[in-house]
Amino acid sequence: SLVEQSKKSAAYQAVDDNLKPSYKIIGIGSGSTVVYVAERIGQLSNKSQFTCIPTGFQSKQLILSNGLKLGSIEEFPNIDITFDGADEIDSDLNVIKGGGACLMQEKLVASCSKKFIIVADFRKKSPTGQLGVNWRKGVPIEIIPASYTKILKELKEFGAVKAEVRSGGSAKAGPVITDNGMFIIDADFGAIPPAEVSKLHNKIKFLTGVVDVGLFVNMVEKTYIGEENGSVSTMG
Ligand code: DER
Known about the structure:
6 helices, 28% helix, 14 strands, NagB/RpiA_transferase-like
């Protein structure tokens, strides 16, 4: 499909442009776009020189299924480069992440990375440059399970038009449980101007019970977007 092709083009271009032979430790994100990042690295003749750090169970499987060396963030807290997906990208390169409920380990790995590269299909670039325009599911927030009623109340007091614990849907009765054993709350604040993202992130992050927030502020070095016409555009 056009979307899958655009994911692949963005991911391949990002790896080809940024993966230097001098790099040793590579962070691998989560989701369906980063699948092509792992695939591309798996094609390299010198792939055994890299140690790949996962951002969750699916990411770990990606590393193993592409014959890449698996490392842990405990052993390798200094990461040369991380490639990851995003749910939406604004004009300041802030991103919403957490659509796949992996935001905590994604942010941990990104925070340990010298370079943090986002790869995405054309649906992820915000049409108005504001977060919360195309991505209408809300800001994903990873929380301590026992705190969910308290936090839902506080988020609504903050002005969330909608906030709810992410359900497992037909896959699982009850809430989604993250790789860290936590719940996810999705909180919809409508369109968020780039200048407001940091303030909103900090307000949510400091609520007791919040583990982390799916707003990555001033973390992204460069984005690779696969466009509908088959080209790849970059920002940053
Ligand atoms: O959950 C995340 O942040 C993932 O990176 C995810 O949102 C990316 O999704 P996709 O690559 O499957 O579109």
